[in-house]
Amino acid sequence: MAYKLLFVCLGNICRSPSAENIMRHLIEEEDLADQIICDSAGTSSYHVGSAPDRRMQAAARKKGIKLLGQSRQFSRADFQDFDLILAMDNDNYRNILSLDRKGEYGDKVKMMCDYAENFRDTEVPDPYYGGDSGFDYVIDLLLDACDGLLTEVKKEL
Ligand code: 4NP
Predict the structure, then answer these.
(1) Residue nearest atom 3 in ligand 1 by C-alpha distance
(2) How far is the C-alpha of 28 from the C-alpha of 146, rounded, in Å?
(3) Mean pLDDT, 10 residues at a time, over the chain (157 residues)?
(4) 143 membership: H or E segment, kind and range
(5) What is the C-alpha separation between 64 and 15, in angstroms, rounded?
(6) Is 15 annotated in the active site?
(7) How far is it, in rounded angstroms, from Cα 18 to Cα 38?
(8) Helix (H, G, I), strand (E, B), or coil: what is residue 109?
(9) Index of the ligand 1 atom closest to the CA of residue 46
(10) Which residues are within 8 A (CB) of 48 and not within 5 positions of it... i.e. 6 or more apart?
(11) Is 9 annotated in the active site?
(12) Which among 72, 127, 128, 149 has most CB atoms closer than 10 A?
């Protein structure tokens, strides 16, 4: 059985689709695509069905990453479907856990920044209302955190 990762932000059009597609890129580089599966979701329904934000796509493209996917909302079923759920910020973390009524799945939910090795951020900043540099920053931070995450996930395979 493949190990399943779910990346979660608010809208599922900026940060979590970036994390998903960066991680898949790293996984494919290491020939692990049949062993690790990635998906992403948003805690809100604001952008359900939408493609990743064009500004986020442009920032990812500069690093050779194409952002694929359509926004969907996080649901309770995801707690069972995934092995590890990565929250981009503290609000995401809280909103995910608020759906875990019986407190069964807390061990599966982690902060994405816990895996960063070169950045000291504790949250992936929301770039939505800011300028282009915020999108570039998100990509750089996620490249670092995905690298650290892959090192940890490989220990679980
Ligand atoms: P994301 O960014 O959570 O990284 O996808 C946002 C997308 C949309 C909104 C906020 C953040 N919004 O308020 O619509």
Answers:
(1) 10
(2) 13
(3) 98 98 98 98 98 98 98 98 98 98 98 98 98 98 98 97
(4) helix 132-156
(5) 16
(6) yes
(7) 11
(8) strand
(9) 14
(10) 12, 42, 71, 72, 73
(11) yes
(12) 149
User: Tokens for 60?
Assistant: 């990812």
User: In this predicted model, what pLDDT tens digit does every residue of 109-144 receive, in sequence order?
Assistant: 999 999 999 999 999 999 999 999 999 999 999 999
Main-chain dihedrals φ then ψ at residue 31, nearest 5 degrees: 60, 35
Which pair of structure tokens corresponds to residue 48? Answer: 């359900």
Distance, CA 127 to ligand 1 centroid (Å)? Answer: 8
Q: Are 23 and 5 in contact (CB under 8 A)?
A: yes
Distance 126 CA to ligand 1 centre (A): 7
Tokens of 134: 């915020």
* β-strands 36-42, 109-111 pairing: unpaired
Other C-beta atoms lying within 10 Å of the C-beta of residue 143: 21
**CA–CA separation, 73 and 34 (whole Å):** 25
| CA of 13 relative to ligand 1 center, distance in Å | 6
81 is catalytic: no
Q: Is 12 in the pocket of ligand 1 (CB under 6 A)?
A: yes
Do residues 119 and 144 lie in contact, with contact meaning Cβ atoms separated by under 8 Å? yes
